[in-house]
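Hi again,

Forgot to attach this to my earlier email, sorry! This is the prediction with iron/sulfur cluster bound. I've pasted everything inline since the attachment limit keeps bouncing my files.
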Amino acid sequence: MYPFSLTTAPTTRAAVDAGRRGGRYIAGGTTLVDLMCETVERPDTLVDISRLPLREVTVTGGGGLRIGALVTMTEAAAHRKVRTLYPVVSQALELSASAQLRNMATIGGNIMQRTRCAYFRDVSAACNKRQPGSGCAAREGYNRTHAILGTSENCVATHPSDVSVALAALEARVHLLGPDGQRTVPFADFLLQPGRTPDREQAIHPGELITAVEIPAHPRPLKSGYLKVRDRESYEFALTSAAVALHIHGGVIREAKVAAGGVGTVPWKLPTVEQALVGKRPSDRLWAWAAESAADGARPLTHNRFKAELLKRTVERQLRIVGETA
Ligand code: SF4
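Structure tokens for the complex follow:
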């Protein structure tokens, strides 16, 4: 470890002022402290935001949900309204990390978490995300867990968050407060694909603080769920995952929201799968046919060619699971 200063923000405005001066926000610390110990991150000043009043889950008009940025993963997963209105969110949270980590980690921190690419965390390896222009050790290295969608020559790392996949499927919005005031960013625009600047991961301005994540109202009844495929049953990141929400009325799928995890540099929305489902009657043939396009555009690497087929099967299976209960 190395020297750094720590201040506690008594108010949201004080936090933003400290952030504007270059302070790094810290709440649960479950990612940032690890990265500081490994000297991957070396902030001079940490701003403790854990006492700010951003801990509420509220129901918005029509059955949407607003989840405060400092609600812990455990609290969000267990919240009665989250469980009943959007089980896909509860399930994604409960399949993440460990109970101890979920007790500390917050929703805001979860969507800001950085990749688990081993080369990113090894300061002796070339990594454009950690050190722009240094190269990407993963492209020629061991890349079994890396991305097949949204990659660039500069970075092929996956985004590790499960709940972000559910939020992407549900077309959530991120509420931000910064030196220039409040703004809201669609989740689809918040997390950035690597392109030429893999070190830039979120559409967030200097000093901006996430205050909440909002899930818009969706037509009811809405059935939803999250499926995570991984090498072991707990405390492991996704090889593939699927977040699915279906509104079925009169025996016809009226709305379908689908996204995949473990395969993209960001949570990967699947509009072609969604479009294939809307207006159709649920059936096993439909699930299989719709899932066929899930890996369109995939660019597998040496060790992760299996992911394209696994992704299709994951999506098909989760469509069937949710569709049969709808
Ligand atoms: Fe770094 Fe991205 Fe390459 Fe991993 S995949 S080594 S994070 S540039």
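The pocket of iron/sulfur cluster is lined by residues 115, 117, 119-120, 127-129, 136-138, 155-157, 198 (CB under 6 Å). Residues 306-325 form the longest helix (20 residues).

That should be everything now.

G.
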